[in-house]
From TrEMBL:
It holds the Pfam family MOSC. Residues 22-171 form the MOSC domain. SUPFAM superfamilies: PK beta-barrel domain-like. PANTHER family: METAL-SULFUR CLUSTER BIOSYNTHESIS PROTEINS YUAD-RELATED, MOSC DOMAIN-CONTAINING PROTEIN. Signal peptide: none annotated. It comes from Brevibacillus ruminantium. Gene3D superfamilies: PK beta-barrel domain-like. This is MOSC domain-containing protein.
């Protein structure tokens, strides 16, 4: 996998556990915590189903990123989904997010660094938003393995402001690379 660069298309946050997040002019990423003012901010899990299992788990889902190319694909399939509507904090273009290995570092804007922790697992809330959306974000590879296409999750290594138009530089971890798993 060669060096990749991309662009931030949109940034979003929500102070409540709503499904969609509101687009913003900028978001602030806080080291070890996530997106300032977002319901998922914190060192320990904030996702309600994870909190119910064990509220002391580390928060590996501080920042949700999704590639705008999947939004294009969904539109071609008849869905109407805009940036932020599937709960992502950062909508990207030009980076093959789903192909990144675990531990990849994304340098976003002038100073923010996000470490990729895994895949977002599509949930049934997607179908409440638009019927059939969850199935549209799942696929199968040639071997029949499940492919999750609803974006990736990460933790904030270095604080910084992120705005639409900011560049994204991909820094791959040392080999051997570990494929992304759901977190």
């Amino acid at each position: 996998m060669k060096d990749q660069t991309g662009t931030v298309i949109s940034v979003s946050k929500s102070a409540t556990h709503s499904f969609s997040k509101q687009n913003q002019n900028a978001i602030n990423l806080l080291t070890g915590l996530g997106v300032e003012g977002d319901a998922h901010l914190g060192e320990t899990v904030k996702h309600r189903s994870r909190v119910a299992q064990d509220p002391t788990q580390p928060n590996l889902r501080q920042v949700h990123l999704i590639h705008s190319e999947i939004l294009d694909e969904l539109r071609e399939s008849g869905f109407d989904v805009l940036p932020g509507q599937m709960g992502e904090n950062i909508t990207t273009r030009g980076v093959q997010l789903l192909d990144l290995p675990t531990g990849t570092r994304l340098h976003v804007g002038s100073s923010a660094v996000i470490e990729v922790t895994g895949l977002r697992n599509p949930c049934n809330q997607l179908n409440h938003f638009q019927e059939g959306l969850m199935q549209a974000l799942l696929g199968r590879d040639e071997q029949g393995n499940l492919i999750r296409k609803a974006g990736i999750m990460g933790i904030v290594l270095t604080s910084g402001e992120v705005r639409p138009g900011d560049s994204i530089r991909v820094e791959l971890p040392s080999e051997p690379h570990r494929p992304l798993e759901r977190v």
